[in-house]
Amino acid sequence: MTTLQNRPNTALLVVDVQNGVVEGAQERDTVVANVGSLVERAREEEIPVVWVQHSDENLTRGSDDWKIVPELEPAESEPLVEKSYGDSFEDTTLETVLSGLGVGRLVVVGAQTDACIRSTLHGAFARGYDATLVSDAHTTEDLSSWGAPPPDQVIAHTNLYWHDQRAPGRTAGTVETKDVDFGAS
Questions:
Q1: Active site annotation includes 116
Q2: What is the pLDDT of residue 160?
Q3: Active-site residue among 116, 124, 137, 155?
């Protein structure tokens, strides 16, 4: 249903599941395991898996914190997009990668819920993509000392509002890991 022309395919978009990003995140191990199971399923179903990796002054490219968590390993054939902003599309090659794969629908997982996940979901939706958030495969750290709600509430609120996201000619929503259908529109 995407508004993008000739983009019938779906991709699994794995955002910032990096050591320094998910260290200490809410239900880190469960979320990483859910992401891993989706990566395996996507590969089995020949669905593109696209990895996004963040770097900035606090997450130095090449450092241990910058690396993808050891439980997950991008395949040589899977695109890896490097970014410096919350929105994975902003000043990156992501649009070119997805266009080349004929992708108009994204299944989004990763971290951090209240930053890069939200920015990427909105960036995708505004650009015409259908965007599904996997409700139990994204996480964030505790930023309550800076005035944010606790992580479980941030995750629950994001799932709530993305479940009901609407726009002409596009679909959004949430789904649990066990119910992901890479062929659904």
A1: yes
A2: 97
A3: 116
